[in-house]
Amino acid sequence: MQSQQGQGETLTPRQQKILALVVRNYVETAQPVSSKVVAEQSGLGVSPATVRNEMARLEELGYLTHPHTSAGRVPTERGYRYFVQQLMGRAQLPLSERRTISHQFHQVRPDLEQWMRLAAAILARAGRGASLVAAPKSPASRFKHLELISLRETHVLLVLVLLGGVVRQQVLVLNQPTDQAWLSTVANRLNDALKGLTAQDIRGLLPGMEGFDGQVASLVATAMERYDAHEMGQVYHAGVEEVLAQPEFSDAEGIRQVLQILEGQTILSQILDEVRRAGGVQVL
DNA sequence: TGTGGGGTGCATCTTACTCC
DNA sequence: GGAGTAAGATGCACCCCACA
Asked: To the nearest whole number, what is the mean pLDDT of chain A?
């Protein structure tokens, strides 16, 4: 059972039109769609019986189903997927919307977490519903760069940058005073030694590292482990409370909002373009 | 619980087209 | 031109649900 796009059967233009009408009507009314309604609205010039025959074929192919013998047809998950991928078409995002999204991404600092929160907010607003955005998930974060900046005599700011644009900061309190030149030397050494390594790799190097180098490397590994455990793959959301608070929320409304979110693929494409332009983030 | 409305499935008929 | 075939229309029996 496969469809046109590599999944199998090819639907005739008439079957595609009937399927599209069933999906649109069901989304609008939340009621099973009768062959009579389709026959009247399709403009195909065929009788309800002919529509019924086509509906029966669509049901055989798994695009439609019906709750009971005398009920109209409702789309299946496969029917929705076919509608979204083949029949709905791709809406052109208005220029004003594209400019707004672009402007918003230039307003936030280049940080993955900020981008994810902004992406969720934009999708929720555009789709007038709830949105969930998952950060790209990779097996483990990798070290890119660190800076050690002297704040006061014994206070040092550790700035850790991971591949993918994540930035973490931590203030270190040392036992004895130090100066920026020495901190820069240590940072350069660690940048050379740790480049591209995972937290686990860095842990493996710790026995061979002594003194302050080893302490900083250990802190780096800990920060990366914490990030891997809690933040990679985190789901950011927006608009969920607003949707759940709607008293008239129903199945049909839910389906309509799902379709709006799917239509938001256009918006999502723009968001991903902005993230890529902003630099260096691998969007999965 | 009976009844009416809405809807489907199926058998049958009609029509158009193709092939010999 | 006649037979075969496919597509579409029609009619009827049946099912489900809402309502009094």
From this structure: 72
